Amino acid sequence: MGASLTLRRVGYQPRTNIVKDEKGDLVTDCHSVLAKWRNRFSQLLDIHGVNHVVRQTEIHTAEPSASDVEMAVEKLKRHKSPGTGQILTELIKARGKTTCCEIHKFINSVSND
Asked: I need a labelling partner for 24 at 20 to 30 A (CA). Which of 52, 73, 80, 93 fits?
């Protein structure tokens, strides 16, 4: 009960991505934040002065069927915080097959590009 009272008092606050640069200034620009994290992890992963090359490989998987998408939507839990896309599970489930078909089309279009 205490957590719900705190949430009502504070209200919803969207997630922010802020880091400090080398000077100690706050950086909020998406590209600068990504560059900062990329530099930090490349420093951490630099073992014995050798910077390892990360190789990207394509993973070939079968495209999900419409029933696969429907089953995945059914498994979504209600009353959970939305992800970075700010799409609520309840909205996806409320639209039913229409949304499942659109999600299926979107996944197939992305995988075909």
From this structure: 52
